[in-house]
UniProtKB/TrEMBL annotation:
This is Thioesterase domain-containing protein. The keyword Iron-sulfur does not apply. Keywords: Hydrolase. Gene3D superfamilies: Hotdog Thioesterase (3.10.129.10). Pfam families: 4HBT.
Amino acid sequence: MTSETGPEQETDGSHEHFRALERLYKAAPINSLFDSDLEITERGFARITFAVDERHYHAAGAVHGTSYFKMLDDAAFYAANSLVSDRFLLTTAFNLLFTRPLKSSTVTAEGRWVSGKRRVFVADSRLIDQDGEEIARGTGTFMRSHIPLASLPGYKQDL
């Protein structure tokens, strides 16, 4: 699907870039701690499905805020980085709004690019529980780094 959602036009390489970002996500050591899958279907949008359980709980028996941050930041980050095919983006700020506690569940994090065309990008994200209820939302700013995506483990597919 061709869209005008981002600063770069759709190219024949978008599909490959999306798959490479999905591999990059899987290759990140932190993601071995989370049962999760990233899907990028179009420029400026990312969806991650997470399974959370008692391992993610704080002392009062609900999912700890660090898990909320991880899910929201990842979804917004990959929505923004789907628009940039040469450099890794870095999170420079992130704001969270918690709307309800979360117990063991399958959670969907959806991220959408909001603005930014060159160096700084803004994206928002939301968490939806398995009943379709929004449980949190966030907005982040992301900046181009000097790190080439192609230099990162997982991004470049081994031939």
